Amino acid sequence: MTISNTVKITDELIASHGLKPDEYQRILELVGRVPTFTELGIFSAMWNEHCSYKSSKKWLRTLPTKGDVVIQGPGENAGVVDIGDGECVVFKMESHNHPSYIEPYQGAATGVGGILRDVFTMGARPVAAMNALRFGAPDHPKTKHLVAGVVAGVGGYGNSFGVPTVGGEVNFDPRYNGNILVNAFAAGLAKTDGIFLSKAEGVGLPVVYLGAKTGRDGVGGATMASAEFGDDIEEKRPTVQVGDPFTEKCLLEACLELMASGAVIAIQDMGAAGLTCSAVEMGAKGDLGIELDLDMVPVREERMTAYEMMLSESQERMLMVLKPEKEEEAEGIFRKWGLDFAIVGKTTDDLRFRVLHQGEEVANLPIKELGDEAPEYDRPWVEPKTHEPLAKDDIPHADVADALLKLLGSANMSSRRWVWEQYDTLIQGNSLQLPGGDAGVVRVEGHATKALAFSSDVTPRYCEADPYEGGKQAVAECWRNLTATGAEPLAATDNLNFGNPERPEIMGQFTKAVTGIGDACRALGFPIVSGNVSLYNETNGQGILPTPTIGGVGLIRDWSKMARIGFAAEGEAILLVGAPASWGTHLAQSVYMRDIHGRTDGPPPAVDLEHEKKVGDFVRALIADGIATAVHDLSDGGLAVGLAEMAMASGIGATVNQLKDLSPIPVFFGEDQGRYLVTIPRDRVDWFYQERVKDTGVFAPWIGTTGGSELKLGDARAIAVSAMREAHEAWFPQFMDNELSNA
Amino acid sequence: MKSAVVVLPGLNRDRDMIAALTKISGTAPVTIWETDTDIPDVDLIVIPGGFSYGDYLRCGAIAARMPVMRAVAEKAAKGVQVIGVCNGFQILVESGLLPGALMRNTSLKFVCREVKLQVANANTAFTHRYKPGQIIRCPVAHHDGNYFADAETLARIEGQGQVVFRYAEGTNPNGAINDIAGIVNDKGNVLGLMPHPENLIEPAHGGTDGRGLFESALGVAA
C-alpha cells in the first residue's frame, strides 16, 4: 500500500496522530498553511510525549544535573561522567514498556539495542548493561509469557551484541498486569577527548545514512508509546520494531573505527521517530537547516512513501555529518562491515527541514521550531493522599523463622538466577561482581585498580504510598547499593515510569517523585545526567505503580578492596551500621506486611538524607581502609532478609542477638532506611568503636557473630543456610517450569 | 610461540581471547579477517566465541564458508594448532574440521554460569599442563552447546581419546551426549570446546583454572 502525500488533513487524521486541536492550531501558525501528510507525520513524531517531554519538561528542569565530574548532562544521547585518567563513563537508561507488552521478545530486544546505540553514538564502547523489569501478578495469565519473552529478548540482543549484563531488577505486582516495564540501562567507556555529539557544524556538508536498511517496522512507534492501551492492543503489533543484534555489533565496530579516523563531525542514532528525529536534532542543535533526499535512503521494502520513511523505526541505523574529504575512507569502513552507507542529504543555512521524494518537496518546515517550539504543558496536579502512621501497638505477629523462609521463597524476594543465567554476565572478561550482590562491578580495562559499580533501584510500593519519599528512597537505595561495594557514587540516570499525566492524581505522583529525586540527588551529590520519561502506562484507565527507576554509577578506586555481600569468615562480628536505637522500627509498606499479612497501609519509611550521607560515607571509608570484610545494605525484608542474603552468598551462618522486651518483628522485618550490615574481625571490635565510631554520631551496634551453618535470629528457631538457599532458589524455576503449557 | 585470532563480523569474545593470549604469552596475537586467505606463519590459530554473522543460519554455518576458513583448514592440515571456543567450536564443526554437531541446549535457553570440567585427556597439545582427570572450574555462555554425534562417531572419538573435556559433577549445562564439553580431531591438533577458559585466567576473574589450556598450547611456563 502506498500513501499519497496529498491525503486530506481531517480532524480525524489529526486525532489519530495523537495531536490535540490546539496543537494542530500551533502547527498551522508555524507552517503558515495546511501541512502535508508527511509534515503532519513529522509533527506527530516530534511532538508526542515520548520525544518532546511536553508534560514532564517543566519538572525535569528542577533536577540537579551538574557536578564536578559531569562532562555532559541531559540533552544528548547519554550522560558523560569523568572517571579520571582521561577516561569517562557514558550511560543512560531508557524504557521500552509499550512495545515489550505488545511483543515481549522484540520489544525487550530493541530496548536493549536502543540504549546500547545511545551509548556508542557518543563514542563509547559499551561495557555493562542492566535491566529493570516489572511484570504483573505471577498468576495473571499473561505474566509467564511476558517474563519468558522479555528475558529471552534482553538476553538475545545483549548476548549477541557482546555486553555483560551485570545487574537489574525483576518484580511482580498486579498493577503491572496491563503495562509491564522494561527499563534498559547501558554504560560505556570513552576517552574524555573522544566524545561525539549530535550538533551539526558547517554548511553544505554531506549528511550520511549508515547501518541497516529502512523498512516499515515501527512506523508510528513513538506515538503509540505516548498513548494508553485499550482493548485494541493486538492491532498495535506492527508498530513494534524488530532487532538485529548482529548488525548492531557491526555498527558499533564500524562507528568506533570511523570515529577514530577523525571523519565524524556529528552523529545521532535513529531511535524513536527515526530519520525525522535524528535529522531535526542534528540541524536544530547546530543552527543549521537539513535537506534530505529520500530517494537515496537505503530501503528494504518496495514503494515506501515519504511518510513511512520519515516515521520508520527500523533499528540499527545512524545519521552522521562527515568531513567531505574523509567520505571515501568512511565508506570503506562501512562496506568492510557489510553496512549500508549512503549520502542522503546536506546541511544548509536556511534553518529549514526540507524533505525531497521522487522530485517532489514533501516537507518544508522550520527546523528550530520543530523541536524547540514543541508544546509544553504545566499539567494540573493534586497533592497525593498521605497515610497515617501505624499505631504503636499495631505489630501483626508471625513466627520469625517461618516468615523469613516464606519471604525468601516469595515471588518478589526469591533468587533471580533463572533470569540472569540467561544473560551473558562474563563477556569482555572484566566482570568483578555479578548479579545477586548489591551492585554489579566491572573493572576498567587497561587500568590496574579502577572499577565501576552499577545499580538500578526503586521501590514502587513506597512511591505509591508517598511519591515524594519514594522518589527520595529510590535515589538513596541506589546510592547505598553502590556504596556497599566501596564505590564512590558518581551520578545517575532516571527512567520515570508513570500513568496518564492528563489525570491530576498521576501528575501529582510525578511532580512529587521528581521533587524527591531532586532533593535526594542534591543532598547526596549524585546528579542526574541522562534519563527518559515513560508516561501513559495505563490500560483501560488503570495506571501502574509510580516507578521512577534510578540507575546509578559509582567509581571504585581499588577493586582489590571492594566489598561483597557474602560473610567472609566464621567468628566475625556483625555490625548494624546506621541503625536506630532499637535496630529496626518501620513496618508500614514493608514486604513483611504485604507478603505475610496482606497489608499495604501506612506510610513508607522516610529517608533522612543527612543521616544517609553520613552513614554511607562512614561505610565507604571502612571498605577503603580494608576494615570491613563483608558489606550489605538493608532494603526489602529488612535485617532478617539482609542477614539471610549474606549467609546464602557465603554458606556461613550467623547468630544474632535479640533486644530484650522488644517485639522481634520490627527489629527483624522493619525497613528503616540508611542501614548497612558490616562484618569485621572480632579482635577489631574494641578498636572499631574507639577509633572509627568515636564521636561520628553513627550508631553501629554489634548485633551478632558469623559462624556455623544456620541462621539464628534471636529467640527464633535456627534455619539451616541450605534450607534458606533451597527456598530462595526454588520459586523462579518452579514458576516458569510450566511456561510452555501456560503461554 | 606466535598466535593468531580469527575476527569475523558478529564474533564478540575476540577481545577476551586476545587479552588472554596476550596476558599469558606476553605477545599480542595477530588478527585475521573474514576475507584473509593468507594466514601469517603462526603456531596457534584461535577462533573465539560470539555470534558470527548473527548465527542466523545454523550456528557457525556461514562463518564455515568464508574464505578465511579454507585457509585455516589448510593450516590445520599442515599441523598448525587450532582452537575454537564456543562459536569457534561450532564453526570448526560446520567446517568439517571436527566431528559431530552442536544442537540447541536442552533447556532451549541461553545459559551463562560456571561449570566443572574434567580433563578427560591430559595427553594433548592443549591439556598437558593439567593432571589426568583433574577437575577444573570454567564458565559457559551459549545457546547451542548440546554436543551430539552418531553412535559410530561417538565410539570412535571416545575410543581414540578425542574427548578432552567433560562436564563433571552433574554440571552439564546443555544436555551434551556423554557430557562432552570439548574434543580434538584425530590428529590431535584441532581443539573445539564450548566453555570459555579465556574468562578464567586471572585473579580478577575469580580463578585461573583456564590458564592451563593456553599454557599448554602456547608452550609457556605456568
From TrEMBL, chain A:
Q: Where does ATP bind?
A: Y53, K92, D494, G531
UniProt pathway: Purine metabolism; IMP biosynthesis via de novo pathway; 5-amino-1-(5-phospho-D-ribosyl)imidazole from N(2)-formyl-N(1)-(5-phospho-D-ribosyl)glycinamide: step 1/2
State the reactions this protein catalyses. Answer: N(2)-formyl-N(1)-(5-phospho-beta-D-ribosyl)glycinamide + L-glutamine + ATP + H2O = 2-formamido-N(1)-(5-O-phospho-beta-D-ribosyl)acetamidine + L-glutamate + ADP + phosphate + H(+)
Note whether Repeat occurs among the keywords: no
So where does substrate get bound? S95, H96, N97, H98, R117, Q241, E313, S314, Q315, S534
Which terms are listed as keywords in the entry?
ATP-binding, Cytoplasm, Ligase, Magnesium, Metal-binding, Nucleotide-binding, Purine biosynthesis
List ligand-binding residues for Mg(2+) 1.
E94, N532
Q: Name one GO cellular component term.
A: cytoplasm
HAMAP family (UniProt xref): PurL_2 (MF_00420)
Checking NCBIfam families in the record gives: FGAM_synth_II, PRK01213.1
- What is this protein identified as? Phosphoribosylformylglycinamidine synthase subunit PurL
Organism expressing this protein natively = Pseudaminobacter soli
Lineage of source species: Bacteria, Pseudomonadati, Pseudomonadota, Alphaproteobacteria, Hyphomicrobiales
Automatic annotation (TrEMBL), chain B:
Give the primary localization class. Answer: cytoplasm
Q: Which SMART domains match?
A: GATase_5
The coding gene here is purQ
What is the purpose of this protein? Part of the phosphoribosylformylglycinamidine synthase complex involved in the purines biosynthetic pathway. Catalyzes the ATP-dependent conversion of formylglycinamide ribonucleotide (FGAR) and glutamine to yield formylglycinamidine ribonucleotide (FGAM) and glutamate. The FGAM synthase complex is composed of three subunits. PurQ produces an ammonia molecule by converting glutamine to glutamate. PurL transfers the ammonia molecule to FGAR to form FGAM in an ATP-dependent manner.
Its lineage reads:
Bacteria, Pseudomonadati, Pseudomonadota, Alphaproteobacteria, Hyphomicrobiales
Provide this UniProt record's keywords sorted from A to Z: ATP-binding, Cytoplasm, Glutamine amidotransferase, Hydrolase, Ligase, Nucleotide-binding, Purine biosynthesis
Which CDD domains does this chain map to?
Answer: GATase1_FGAR_AT
Q: What interactions and quaternary structure are annotated? A: Part of the FGAM synthase complex composed of 1 PurL, 1 PurQ and 2 PurS subunits.
Q: Spell out the protein name for this chain.
A: Phosphoribosylformylglycinamidine synthase subunit PurQ
| Compartment(s) of residence | Cytoplasm
Taken from the UniProt entry, a GO cellular component term is:
cytoplasm
Q: Which reaction does it catalyse?
A: N(2)-formyl-N(1)-(5-phospho-beta-D-ribosyl)glycinamide + L-glutamine + ATP + H2O = 2-formamido-N(1)-(5-O-phospho-beta-D-ribosyl)acetamidine + L-glutamate + ADP + phosphate + H(+); L-glutamine + H2O = L-glutamate + NH4(+)
The question of whether Hydrolase is a record keyword is answered with yes
Task: State any GO BP term from the record.
Answer: 'de novo' IMP biosynthetic process
State whether keyword Translocase applies.
Answer: no
Catalytic residues identified in the record: C86, H196, E198
